[in-house]
Amino acid sequence: MATEVVMPKLGLTMLKGTVIKWRKLENELIKKDDILCEIETDKAVTEVEARVDGILRKILVNVGEPIPVTLPIAIIGDKNENIEKLIEEAYQKLRKVKILEETSKKDKFISSATKEKHSIELKKQEDGFKKISPRARRKAAELGVDLKLLRGSGPNQVVIEKDVISYYQNHYNIPKSTNRAANKIPYIGMRKIIGDRLSQSKFTAPHVYFSVSIDMSKIVELVKNFEKNDEKKISINDFLIFTVANVLLEQPYLNCSLINEEIIYHKAINIGMAVALEEGLIVPVIKNVNKKNLFDLSIETKRMANLARARKLMPDDYIGGTFTISNLGMYDIEHFTSIINPPESAILAVGTIQKKPVVTKKNDEKIEIRSIMKITLSVDHRIIDGVKVAKFLKRLKYCLEFPERFFNK
Amino acid sequence: MREIFYVEALREALREEMRNNPDVFLIGEDIGDYGGVFKVTEGLYKEFGAKRVRQTPISEATIVGTALGAAIAGMRPICELMFIDFLPLAGDQIFNQAAKIKYMTGGQAKVPLVIRTNIGAGRAAAAQHSQSIHAWACHMPGIKVVLPSNPYDAKGLLKTAINDDNPVLFLEHKFLYRMKGEVPEEDYTIPFGEASIKNEGTDVTVVAISSLVNKAMNVSKKLFLEGISVEVIDPRTLIPYDRDAVANSVKKTGHLVVADEGYMNCGICSEIAMKVIEDAFFYLEAPIRRVAAPDVPVPFCPSLEKLCIPDEKDIEKAIKLCIG
User: Fold this and answer.
1) For A72-80, what is the mean pLDDT?
2) How far is the C-alpha of A64 from the C-alpha of B303, rounded, in Å?
3) pTM of the predicted model, to two decimals?
4) End of a domain among B128, B158, B182?
5) ω before A343 within 30° of 0 (cis)?
6) What is the Cα–Cα distance from A220 to A213, expressed in whole angstroms?
7) Is residue B166 domain-shared with residue B41, that is, in the same domain?
8) Which of A18-22, A381-385, B5-9, B160-164 shows the lowest per-residue confidence on average (mean pLDDT)?
9) Spatial distance between the Cα atoms of B290 and B310, rounded to a whole number of angstroms
10) By residue range, what is the domain housing residue B91?
11) Cβ–Cβ below 8 Å for B282 and A138
12) Could you give the ipTM of this predicted complex?
């Protein structure tokens, strides 16, 4: 009994996936849970497992072609089963022309429809192979347009010269003199997704910003103690995440989202920690931080950071956040503002720790050198007010400046 | 300007050259009193007599062989072969002798020989009287191949052929003999190797041979009303061939359709297309389309014969396939 293997929807917002490698070949024996292929979404690479036993009778899509979720990508069935109809239906769904390949001579049934498609007019449409006319290539080389971005309007979806020219006119509004000197990269993929989300967030939520300086001297000391053992090393970031989560537990007003005219105060406290990758910022989420102790948290943050850098995050790993922390301290940035990560309503931007002379609040005022860190909280003013923010930050500051009173060691 | 028939234009060329030069003579079957099977030589026997309008037995090899000898000896013979289908009978004389003698004698012997014949199907003349096998001659170095598509070109090119010191295969078309066209009274010639742009256009280049030039012109008029601008080029001579004119045209339009009445396989269309690929590949927007006769002997039955002759619908279909 043949079944379709479909492009899986691996996350709520996933619309398309691309097969980047087939692990099994056509006519190979498949056992349930065998890995069939590797699929790439905009954010991560995942493996797709077989749900049934059988033979991989037909691979319907090629490597590198984005396929909408739930559409068929392969057919698993018995060795001698007639899957002609299934293939036709699958291709119809994929809106492709069926090619009668030599290897399918086992399938005795040749429909008249496929015979017509054999005619000279319809050249073999290699799935995913983008046809570009020589003239278009020439023009693209001349104008510096990336052919990968073009859609063909010529017969058989061939990219022709006018596609290149119209793309150039629409996207490259630069005078010719700077054209030569510029280095151009297309605004696509992860970069574009991040860009679109950030724009949407900034344009929807009225951002207000609140900054405090925090004396991190004591925490810096604590971190030094752990530095000897790399494995168990707890970072400043870990302290931050832990503290923020626990303050949120006390003051849940910032742990909310505005969704469809409702303000939802989340029970879980899932903190996203921004990780910088070459292609953009990715924010893996640590779930239920308040339920973890500092050591477990530290292990988890290390694990997430490694997964993120290896591009092996599962969609589950970066959705479901309720609050985000973005730390540019390691780059010596003193102060900056972040854009809220929707559907969250607040984000904490953390600057670098600098040794500064400060007036200490002891009985007699003195000037001491302390490690000072500036943090800036951005909030969505539609649902969070200044006073609540002030309270939150004051408490956060206190917990970070007097960790011995806050942490249970 | 006066309008005369294609056949009359040819006759004028022959008459004028025979009057100019006593070395020019005609040789072929039934060209004398009968005036030739298509009446091209009508009246010439009366004017010039049996020594200059020579009739022969039914032997193409004899016609060409005799003329060849006369040409080497210093005369300027013009052979007439009744149909191009009979070319193979004179094959050795044309391809192995006439085409090569100048080379093999190191230029000492020249061969100012003209062989006139005709191509084209459509008269229910069946497989052996309906072919257009000029591709054979194009494949043979040493022989020029000329195909006029209208009375003006016919007269001018025939005069050039007669005055050329090399073997020239001059190909008329059965259905063009009764075509009328403007021909000046004054003397003129048309050089070989110069294509004629019959219609200027910007969307697609159509290179057509012989009678297909006129069909392509009709198609271009029809498509103009549909918003498609067709450039029609008549190479006029296949050897020597004006490849630059065609290449420049394709550089402008980006699309090419080639139409010839010969068989498709290894035909004229393929060679023209390949030359364009060599000259203008990076200017092409789409694959080159060929319009030619199917690779079957021409049937006798008229309705089947019709399917074997490339027509305006085929040219239009090819154009639309090319530009989408």
Assistant:
1) 88
2) 51
3) 0.54
4) B182
5) yes
6) 15
7) yes
8) A18-22
9) 10
10) 3-182
11) yes
12) 0.73
What CATH code is carried by the domain that includes residue B175?
Answer: 3.40.50.970
Task: Name the phi and psi angles at A378, rounded to 5.
Answer: -100, 130
Six-digit token pair at B119? Answer: 């191509």
Compute the distance between CA of residue A349 and CA of residue A336 in angstroms, rounded to an integer.
6
Question: Can you give the pLDDT at residue A124?
Answer: 46
Using a CB-CB cut-off of 8 Å, the residues of chain A touching B324 are 154-156
CB contact A194 to B (< 8 Å): no
A3-21 residue pLDDT tens: 888 888 888 778 888 888 8
Beta carbons of A205 and A257 less than 8 angstroms apart:
no
* Cα gap B317→B294, rounded to integer Å: 15
Nearest CB to B321; choose among A121, A135, A161: A121
Question: How is residue A292 written in tokens?
Answer: 């973890």
Q: Which residues of chain A have a CB within 8 Å of the CB of B323?
A: 155
pLDDT in tens, B1-54: 999 999 999 999 999 999 999 999 999 999 999 999 999 999 999 999 999 999
DSSP strand pairing (B24-28 vs B196-199): unpaired
pLDDT band of A319, cuts 50, 70, 90? confident
Known catalytic residue at A266: no
Give the gap in angstroms from C-alpha A99 to the nearest C-alpha of chain B: 21
What residue has token string 């490849």?
B243
Domains of chain A are 3-117 (2.40.50.100), 134-181 (4.10.320), 191-406 (3.30.559.10)
Report d(CA B169, CA B116) in Å as an integer: 6
Q: Token digits for B38? A: 């298509």
Mean pLDDT along residues B294-311 = 96
Which chain A residues have a beta carbon less than 8 Å from that of B322? 155
What is the band of A231 on the pLDDT scale with cuts at 50, 70, 90?
low
Q: Give the model confidence (pLDDT) of B80-125 as tens digits.
A: 999 999 999 999 999 999 999 999 999 999 999 999 999 999 999 9
Q: Which of B254, B281, B323 sits opposite A161 (nearest CB)?
A: B254
Burial class (CB in 10 A: 0-12, 13-18, 19+), A289: buried
Of the candidates B182, B217, B240, which is a domain's last residue? B182
Categorise residue B142: left if φ over 0, alpha if ψ from -120 to 50, beta otherwise. Answer: left
Interface of A with B in 102-131 (CB under 8 A): 121
Dihedral-angle region of residue B122 (phi above 0 means left; psi in -120 to 50 means alpha; beta otherwise): left
Beta pairing, strands A346-360 & A323-327: parallel
Inter-residue contact A355 to A370 (CB < 8 Å): yes
Q: How far is residue A34's CA from residue A353's CA, in Å, rounded to a whole number?
A: 49
